[in-house]
Sequence to fold (150 residues):
Amino acid sequence: MRLQLALNVPDLAAAITFYSDMFGVSVHKQRPGYANFEITEPPLKLVLFENTDAQAKHHLNHIGVECEDRSALETAAIHMTANGLTPGNILKTGCCHATQDKMWITGPDDLSWEWYHVLDDNPDPEFALDKAPTTKCCGTEIKPDTTCCA
Fold:
């Protein structure tokens, strides 16, 4: 597993340059208004959503945990449920220009956590579940148990 940090950034190109330099890695995937990095050390999936209205207090888009496989995602759901938490259902969804199995859980501070496993990192846009491969799918609001997080 690795932690996912999704940020709203006012200037995607500047953010890509900054995070590439800071972590010493190239961008993994880039689409209009969207980029992500797969950082080995520290293990981090950094996702950037271009949002020209992003203000200093609203840079955090959401936090997530990327699981290596469906089994790890199911194990996490079982663990949460056994500890009295209520994760959402694991659903196959199109989001962030990828096909994923995903669930959401919201903490007592109203912070939504996305738990997911990527099934196809670069699906054919014609068959993408979100039907909007160039949109900022996770860009605005978390909506658990829907086909996308925006």
Summary: The chain has two helices and eight strands.
